[in-house]
Design a protein that fits this description.
Blueprint: H1 3-31, H2 35-39, E1 47-52, H3 59-63, E2 70-75, H4 85-96, E3 102-108, H5 112-117, H6 126-139, H7 141-145, H8 150-170, H9 173-182, E4 186-192, E5 199-201, H10 206-217
Parallel strand pairs: 1-2, 1-3, 3-4
Antiparallel strand pairs: 4-5
């Protein structure tokens, strides 16, 4: 592409977003003239969604949720790391202030972050982040090494990582204290499949996980 073609392309892709935005806003007003009045009055979401940054998995579209129904945090490979002040702040705010009822950790099959973590290669700045996934492999090494099919092993690591991130969410003080007081939020682990567009519920047993971690990670005392 020539310099002028690149310039035109960048302008078109920029302007297209604003065109879509104007169309979306008009559509909402046609459906409900009070839509933006209600939207500006505040948020009261039922869900905290912790998902992958992958551009193909927009939380609201795949769940049918609308604006104001989900508080969303996304990062590479949907990790919940206790030293990541971003995700920890999101959980704290969602639980203590928004009082969400459900926390969903949603991964996806074909995750590039998980695949990169399985690659014996120096990935620079990504190394410390992806080490969290490599740690999941280490914890579940015996199970994963028995899976001979590479794709199946890769998919299983995606699932196991989601389950471990759910465990990390449940370890937080905000979640433990809110659950002890209110019986919510409940933590769920889901995986999205590109091949059929469906969410798979990994059936994380919130209460069983809570009891299993509290011998060491009990933070219910305020």
């Amino acid at each position: 592409m020539s310099q002028s073609e690149i310039s035109n392309y960048l302008k078109q892709t920029h302007d297209r977003v604003f065109e879509h935005n104007r169309g979306w806003a008009e559509e909402q007003r046609e459906r409900d003239p009070e839509f933006f009045t209600k939207l500006s009055s505040g948020q009261n979401p039922e869900y905290l969604w912790i998902g992958c940054s992958d551009s193909r998995i927009p939380a609201e579209q795949i769940t049918g949720l609308g604006p104001g129904e989900a508080f969303v945090h996304r990062n590479i490979a949907n990790l919940v790391v206790n030293t990541d002040l971003n995700v920890m702040s999101v959980i704290e705010y969602a639980v203590r202030h928004l009082q969400v009822k459900h926390i969903v950790v949603c991964g996806h099959y074909g995750c590039g972050g998980v695949k990169a973590a399985m690659t014996p290669k120096d990935l620079g700045l990504l190394n410390p982040w992806l080490r969290n996934i490599r740690d999941v492999y280490r914890i579940h090494e015996k199970e994963l090494d028995t899976i001979k099919d590479e794709k199946a092993r890769y998919n299983r690591l995606v699932e196991l990582s989601v389950i471990e991130q759910c465990r990390n969410v449940i370890k937080t003080a905000a979640v433990q204290q809110s659950y002890a007081k209110n019986q919510f939020p409940i933590v769920h682990g889901w995986v999205f499949g590109f091949e059929d567009g469906l969410l798979k519920d990994l059936k994380v047993d919130h209460e069983a996980v809570l009891h299993s971690i509290q011998k060491i990670y009990n933070l219910t005392e305020e």
